[in-house]
Design goal:
By secondary structure, the protein is mainly beta. It is built from 3 helices and 22 strands. It folds into 2 domains: about 160 residues, Glucose Permease (Domain IIA), CATH 2.70.70; about 150 residues, Protein Transport Mog1p, Chain A. The N and C termini lie far apart (about 55 Å).
């Protein structure tokens, strides 16, 4: 049935933009099923005539091939997404998405994303309760990883089968043995095993190449008609990584998130969807420096300079069209596009010695999206 539905999906060539429920104080059930159809349209009929000039059924009428593992997946994915480089208790490129529930005391159920067989259910160092499930979708084997569960609530053992949407356990309580001391959240990851004995428990890879057989959950859910549209949110220095350096509030555009780059004390705004690391999906790169006036690097060519104001405080700003000079080494730990020609806007809030913020834009980023980030800036120092 999954293969047939996938064929229908390819035939009609459409995409779905169904909005997920988002609620902070209640825990909606998360069956993974589409919302009730209020327009009188039925489900796709496998026995219907081939589509000719008729209007094809909407994608929301097709049963998603997979379920989401937890409620409010997109709106609570705010701290660690797939491909971000992390340096805290563990270091490396994060292999999955973390779905945060630190604000919820009630039990939070976690469910199987599809029919499958439990590969492992155990207490694992770094996770607490850990479950991995093998699924076969359209002839491809995928293993889903669920970390930081209350192992006492896990309902299935290795070798047992599960069905799509079946509850496999609850999130563990933060700061306890249930999560191995971690905060209350779900670590969810997906990988394509390279052999029948490929059974992984790692949550990070040390090098970008290590992500090759790990799937971006956002891309996976989009493929199987269970999209997780990422809403816009505000960077909060009180809670976001890097907030101790960047005393800023600004709007993170829909479909994007922020990575803190510890080696540079920088922020990387990246698209949640896409292959590779967060740095490889970079759209906006933000740095800072302390000075008494605007400065430019001797390593770049200035094609133009513009004086303007930006942000909620109408901050004094300079916009530069820059390009790294030939013969200069590539910038370390920065997105590749920073080595080419692009726009940078520097701004600050005071006279004398002050902190200047540097906001660089990917050359292919919509100028309106870039301007919206600048317009939303609020300096809190």
């Amino acid at each position: 049935m999954l293969g047939l539905l996938a064929s229908i999906f390819l035939l009609i060539g459409a995409s779905c933009t169904k909005q997920l429920p988002t609620t902070d104080n209640q825990l909606p059930t998360n069956s993974g099923e589409p919302a009730a159809n209020t327009r009188g349209e039925g489900n796709a009929d496998a026995g219907s005539s081939p589509v000719t000039n008729a209007t094809p059924p909407p994608m929301e009428a097709l049963d998603p091939a997979v379920a989401l593992p937890i409620a409010d997946y997109a709106s609570r994915r705010t701290l660690k997404a797939h491909g971000e480089y992390i340096r805290d208790r563990f270091s490396g490129y994060h292999l999955g998405d973390d779905i945060e529930y630190v604000d919820v005391e009630a039990a939070v159920p976690v469910q199987a994303i599809a029919d499958g067989t439990v590969v492992r259910a155990a207490r694992v160092s770094g996770y607490g309760g850990f479950v991995s499930i093998e699924h076969v979708l359209d002839g491809k084997t995928v293993i889903a990883v669920y970390g930081h569960l209350d192992f006492g609530s896990v309902s299935r053992k290795a070798g047992e089968v599960v069905t799509k949407g079946q509850t496999i356990g609850n999130l563990g309580q933060g700061g306890t043995a249930e999560t191995d001391g971690e905060r209350k959240h779900l670590h969810f990851a997906l990988y394509e095993p390279t052999s029948s004995s490929d059974r992984r428990v790692n949550g990070y890879e040390s090098a970008p190449a290590g992500l090759a057989t790990w799937l971006n959950p956002t891309d996976f859910f989009n493929t199987y008609r269970q999209p997780v549209p990422t809403p816009s949110r505000t960077f909060d220095p009180a809670t976001d990584r890097g907030g101790d350096i960047f005393k800023l509030r600004f709007a993170i555009p829909a479909g994007m998130e922020v990575e803190y780059v510890p080696s540079l004390e920088a922020l990387n705004v990246f698209t949640v969807a896409g292959r590779g690391t967060a740095r490889e999906r970079s759209q906006v790169f933000i740095r800072s420096f302390d000075a008494s006036s605007f400065l430019t690097l001797s390593t770049v060519t200035l094609h133009s300079t513009e004086t303007l104001t930006v942000g909620q405080g109408s901050y004094d700003a300079r916009r530069y069209d820059i390009e790294k000079k030939a013969g200069v080494a590539d910038f370390v730990d920065q997105p590749g596009w920073r080595n080419g020609r692009h726009i940078v806007t520097d701004f600050h809030d005071a006279t004398g010695l002050d902190r200047y913020y540097v906001v660089a834009a990917h050359p292919d980023l919509d100028p309106a999206a870039y301007q919206s980030v600048l317009d939303s800036m609020v300096i809190e120092e």
